[in-house]
UniProtKB/TrEMBL annotation:
The keyword DNA-binding applies. Transmembrane segments: none annotated. Keywords: DNA-binding. SUPFAM superfamilies: lambda repressor-like DNA-binding domains, RmlC-like cupins. SMART domains: HTH_XRE. It holds the Pfam family Cupin_2. It comes from the Bacteria. Residues 7-61 form the HTH cro/C1-type domain. GO terms for cellular component: cytosol. One of its GO terms (molecular function) is DNA binding. This is Transcriptional regulator MerR family.
Length: 180
């Protein structure tokens, strides 16, 4: 399949209008139309922006084998660092996005050995916290209430809460934690 046809097919599958795609990447709708009709070729930068907006890789649009790996490029070099290492001294923390990505979320994988946990954390004035317990068990205290989260369960709370958490189980707890 040609590049233009692949872009059009992907755009239509995602329910994105030609005008919206053009607006999101800062080009004219007629340019996108010409690319989709194979009357024009996008620059590498435009192709990258088209792919990012459509949620696919450039390789996918070019018909190459898609490895599932996408290069993330910082738009503004903002460092979020919403996970405070001082409050998580006994917790292994692996950030899942580069710190310099200008994004609205900060996902991380947390691993807590039995008996380990966080200090009390006072969240920012706005935002949300979402976690998915991948393995083990986690006790989390949010404001004055304590919740036990079993393996495979999700938990959500407003980021402006005062909270702490601990692995009270007998095996390591693995948590996908997303701050937004």
């Amino acid at each position: 399949m040609e590049l233009g046809s692949k872009i059009r097919e992907t755009r239509e599958q995602k329910g994105i209008t030609l005008r919206k795609l053009a607006k999101d990447i800062g080009v004219s709708p007629s340019f996108i139309s010409q690319v989709e009709q194979s009357k024009a070729q996008p620059s590498v930068d435009s192709l990258t922006q088209i792919a990012r907006t459509l949620g696919v890789s450039s390789s996918y649009l070019l018909g190459e084998e898609d490895t599932g790996i996408a290069l993330l490029k910082s738009a503004g070099g903002v460092v979020k660092n919403r996970f405070d290492p001082e409050k998580l001294a006994s917790v292994k923390l692996k950030r899942l996005l580069p710190e310099n990505i200008n994004n609205n979320i900060e996902p991380a994988l947390l691993v807590l050995e039995p008996g380990t946990g966080s200090a009390e954390i006072t969240g920012p004035s706005s935002g949300e916290e979402f976690l998915l317990l991948l393995d083990g068990q986690l006790d989390i205290k949010v404001n004055e209430n304590t919740y036990t989260i079993p393996n495979g369960q999700t938990f959500y709370f407003p980021a402006n809460s005062v909270y702490s958490f601990q692995n009270s189980g007998s095996e390591a707890a693995k948590v996908l934690w997303i701050k937004a």
